Amino acid sequence: MDGLNMSRRIRRTPYTDRVEEAGVRGFSVVNHMLLPKAFGPTVEEDYWHLREHVQIWDVSVQRQVQIMGPDAAALVQWMTPRNISNAEIGDCFYIPIIDDKGGLINDPVMLKLAEDEFWLSIADSDVLLYAMGLALGRGMDVEITEPDVNPVAIQGPKAEDLLASLFGKKIRDIRFFKYDWIDFKGTRQLIARSGYSRQGGFEIYLRGGHLGPALWDSIWEAGQAFNITPGCPNLIERIEGGLLSYGNEFTRDNNPFEIGHGKYCTIDNSINYVGREALQTIALNGVSREIRGVAFDGGPCPTCSKAWPVMVGKTQVGSITSAIWSPRLKRNVGQSMINRGFWDPGQTVTVHSQEGSVRLGEISALPFA
Amino acid sequence: MDGLNMSRRIRRTPYTDRVEEAGVRGFSVVNHMLLPKAFGPTVEEDYWHLREHVQIWDVSVQRQVQIMGPDAAALVQWMTPRNISNAEIGDCFYIPIIDDKGGLINDPVMLKLAEDEFWLSIADSDVLLYAMGLALGRGMDVEITEPDVNPVAIQGPKAEDLLASLFGKKIRDIRFFKYDWIDFKGTRQLIARSGYSRQGGFEIYLRGGHLGPALWDSIWEAGQAFNITPGCPNLIERIEGGLLSYGNEFTRDNNPFEIGHGKYCTIDNSINYVGREALQTIALNGVSREIRGVAFDGGPCPTCSKAWPVMVGKTQVGSITSAIWSPRLKRNVGQSMINRGFWDPGQTVTVHSQEGSVRLGEISALPFA
Question: Among A286, B5, B294, B317, which residue carries the largest CB count within 10 Å?
Fold first, then answer.
């Protein structure tokens, strides 16, 4: 059973008409909005295409929380353990957002637009409401809105050539996790070298949803020379690449150290943020579980919609939360929180998938080789 | 295209296994969780059954935001314009939650469990993050959590008889929007006379998801004598009954007065809450649009997943956001914000539905007769 009942509450995007015309086979819902989840006949074909060519993805679900005003920088800093004082205009910063216990609320990309203006490009939780609560509670002088900004991703090894053909060679000068501005039909639009794949590419943060179909069409037309297809975040590529998904691999029950993001956390007292004391304690004591890859046998596994126990003998050492068959590695690959003591690559485990099978496997580093 | 891609991020409920066994035909996603959306062959058959018999609904998506501690009552009051000082333990209060501009953030049912303990049974937005932000920002002494509470609704004219047969005749003494406690397998469980239909019924706020299948089975078994079926909020019944849906009929762009909830708002200075000044200004100036019903011709209309213009001549006076064919009224019924000046029942309009047809109709009061 996999029908999705449509309603206005689950918002369409400026590209949904195009996505439907392109033959989308399924959606997910992120931030109260539609995210395309399947196009080609199989996820495998999409995967190979993404690795070799270029795809256009409707990622409007990456809503922007716009924080402006005299206290904007102070509020953003208060929301994250990452020191943002060295962020420059033109930077994209990956920032964990945590609660007072160190639990992860979201893991957005922060775009610094001006000294007093930021976008947080969010995963699936209402960061806007959290930010608004903090600001109202503390009486901070900020304006917090969800602007009419609708990201579209162009991903794959041919993305740069495609976009250079469309917007000029300045595209090639944009470095990873930096952004610049391009002209589209007389409007100034933000483009960043970023995206939810390991195959390279860009994201255009289109301001003005009414321009969506025209932008899609322009990219599509220019993309014909580069074998473009419609696509979406690819589960095989994401798991192989060790890209985590908020709500899947980690939730408010996890802290940044557990997902390998300790490197983004300032734990001394040089900056002030919600959850600093909790992170200091966690850093002192170490974590009892950490994210790892799990490679396992037994032919293509089913969809993982429940947590699958990862066992060492009779001891449960983790739970797989995303898994799929990798046609390249010719094994199943999954991601799991793994208990301390079982972290070493090569550690033998069994995986108990929801259709009832027990599969042999072992712990792997992330990303997979 | 209506496929829903399953993942752990879109959480299953304690009843999802049962719901699938019962032949669910579609889901929606609310609060990052699955809401069943169709069972019977048609929405019409479900509608007639709901009006005549009894149904069991998995409404676990109505997540509880639990607010406990010395400042709990002060925080809840700060979140809503409804005066909660007269709420007693055992009361359910419908409380609009608004932002500092008066825009609606959610419209939960508040259950007062103790002087220092509240549940907010929420519609589709992360009220937990908002409450947490307010509390952290203001330094309030509260603990805010999402407990393992999983509401199941028993709706329809036979709901009381069914539940009295299962839990005893004390069920009959529970008044509308009051709750009491029942014993289920040695656990104390909350039951309220409430639910998202106009056909009467109850909601059991099951504490302990592991008990979900057993509770479902108990109700199902006892329900055989009452012609029970699995069900879900029914779009025909909801629209006829004038029940609004956050994200569909109203969003943060709307204030409580626009959706007829001015009666819940205290606008004098006797209580202090976020958005009070904004509501005072709105109350002074009046609103420029209000929710109304629209009845319209032309045979069963398609699913409303985009806003449909409601016109008077060449002037757009509103947008229909939910609509469906009513087999009882033998017309289409919809809900729409309608501009001032066009509010009177009987006002002639045309409805421009997304498949391109223009249909004659008129404004109606809510609920429909």
Answer: B294
